[in-house]
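Below is a typical protein record.
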Amino acid sequence: MEISKKSLNLELLVFLLFNVFIVSCMAKKNITVLNWVLEEKNFTRLCETKSILTMNGMFPGPTLYAYKGQRIKVNVVNQGSYNVTIHWESEKIQGGVEGKEGGLWNFWLVDRKTDRKGKEEMEGFPSLFTNQSVQPWAESWMSGCMRESTTRARTKERDLSVARARGHGVKQPRNPWSDGPEYVTQCPIKPGANFTYEIILSTEEGTLWWHAHSDWTRATVHGAIVVYPKNGTNYPFTKPDGEFPIVLASWFKGDIPAIVDDALRDGTEFNISDAFTFNGQPGDRYNCSKDADDMFNITFDYGKTYLLRVINAIMNEEMFFMVANHTFTLVGTDGAYTKPLVTDYVLISPGQTMDLLITANQTPSYYYMAARPIEGVVYNNSTTSAFVKYSGNYTVPSSPSFPDLPYYNDTDAADTFVDGIRSLASEEHPVDVPQTVDTQMYIVISMNSNPCAVGNCSTRLASSMNNISFRAPTTDILQAYYKEIEGIYTTDFPDTPSLYYNFTGDNFTENIVTSTLGARVKVLEYNTTVELVIQGTNVLSGAENHPTHLHGFSFYFVGSGYGNFDNETGPQSYNLVDPPEVNTVGVPKNGWAAVRFRADNPGCGSCTVIWKGMLAGHGHGVHRQEWSNQRNEYAAGSSSTESLLIFSEANLVEESMDVA
C-alpha cells in the first residue's frame, strides 16, 4: 500500500513530539520542589525569651539535602513582618502581591500552575527531607520591582529590615536571577507574598549553606545544604558511617533589627553578640545556659567514622573548633574536596564550610566539642560548647574532657592550618587554576566614615572597597543592566585604589578615612581570567580579619601574607598547583589574600566582605544577548549593605542544561 508523503511527515511529527515529551518528563524527574515558610517564633536562650525570624520555625533552619547535578525549587512563603529574600539563584519568580502603600516594592501575580506530586513520589528522596513539605508547582514572573523610595518603609513604628536568603557557594550556572542580594539580582519578598527559587547544583559536592542576606537577618535565618555525590559515583574517601551538620551561629539578647537601626542612627559600632551557638544552643560555658536542654549533642558508636559538616554562620568572628581527645581529617571546604589533612583543630571563617572525618576511637564517655574566636578589633571572646556522647553503658563523668583550643591570638596556629589546605586535584576532581590572568585587581577593604544623612550623628561607619561604599540604587542592578536603564549604576569601579598609602599603618588623613558613595561596577568579558588581591587595612576601626565571599563562582585561594602586598614578591609565594577551591577566604589581620578564577558564569554576582555583621563587597556577572521571553518582564531588586559590584559580560542564553 502506498503511503503518502503527508502521512509520513505526520508520523514523524508525532514521533518527535513523543520523544520531546519523554525527555521533558525525564528532566522534571530530577527536580525536587519544597515549601518553606518564613515566620517569627519565640525562642528562649540565656534565660530570656525573644521573637526571632526563622525558616519553618527552626533555628537553625532546615537542612537542604540534594545530589550533585540536581535542580531544586524552593518556594518561600513570607509570613513574617519583614521583606525577605533567600540567597541562591532562581530562574522563575513565584507569586508576589501588589505592594501596599508605604511598601518598598510592588509585585504583580501573573500566573500560577500547580503540580501536586507528593513527597513520597519524589524519586531518590524517600526519607532525606525533614521538616520540609512539598510545594505545589507554581510559576510566574514579576515586573515593576523598584524601590518606591530610598527611605525605609516603617511598619509598627520600626524599620523594616530587608532580608534575602542565598545558597552560599551555589554557583548557579547561567541562573543569576535568584542569587539573593537585594537591589542586585532580585526583589525581596513582601510579607504575605511568596517566591520560588531554583537552585542548580552543578559541580558542587559537599557542604554549603543558605541564609538571609540583608542587614542582620542571616543571624537567625540560615541552614545547611548537603550535596551528595552524583548517583553512581562515590566519595573520594571511605564512605562515613554517619554524618552531622553542625552550624555555628551568633545569639543576641537584644532585638536584632533594633541593634542595626540604633547603630545606623547613632553612627556607632554594632553590638557584639552575647553568645555563640552549636545548632542553636549556647552550651554550658554561658551563665543561665547550663541545663541539659541547653546543650546540643551528637552520639557516636565506638569504632565508627563520622562526617561533621561544619558551617560558620557567625556574624563576624573566625572560630577555632575542636573535639576533646579526637582528631579530624579535613576532606572538603566550601563544596569542594581537599587532600586529606589530619589536624586536632580547624579555623573556620564566617561563611566557610568544612567537611571533617572523625573516628570514634576513644574510651566511651562524654567529650566536649567547643569553638571560640580568634581575636578581632571588637569580638565576643567567649566559648560555645556541645557534647559528643558515645553509645553504651558507662558512668557519665562529672567533668568531661574539654578541648585545649588555640589561644585567641594564636596566629601561628591559624596560619599552620590554613597553609595546609590543598585541593584534591585528582583525575576525578581536577583543578583548573588560571596560570596567567587577563585582569588583575588590587582591592583595598577598610572601615571608613560617611556623613549621616539622618539620625543623631554627624558621621557613621561605612565599610568600603577602594574607598567606595555601596549606595543602594532605586532599581536593582541586574534589571537595570538587562533593560538598559540609565542612571542606576556606573561602570567605573577602579582596578586599583585611587590613593596608595601604608594600608596597615597607624596614621591616616581625612581623605583616607572618609569614603565616597556609589553603585559602581566592573565589567568583565566572558571567560576572562581574573586575579583579585584583597588588601586589609588598619583604617579607623583597626586591623582585623576580613572573610570575603564571591557569589556565582568558586575561586582558587592562591596566596596570602602579612603587611602590604608587594607585586614583585607576593606572587612568588603563590600556589598555582593545588590551591584550595573555595568561595570564602579569610583575609588575615593586617595582611592580604590573593584569589584567581575564570569569569565563565554569565550573570550579576557580588563579592561580599563580612564585616561586623555588615556586608561590603563587589560583584560581577551579567551576560545578555538572548534571554528567555519569560524574563522580558522580569524585575529584580536587592543589594548588599555597604557593597560595591562587579559585572562580567557575555551571552546569557536560556537553555536546557544536563544536570542529570
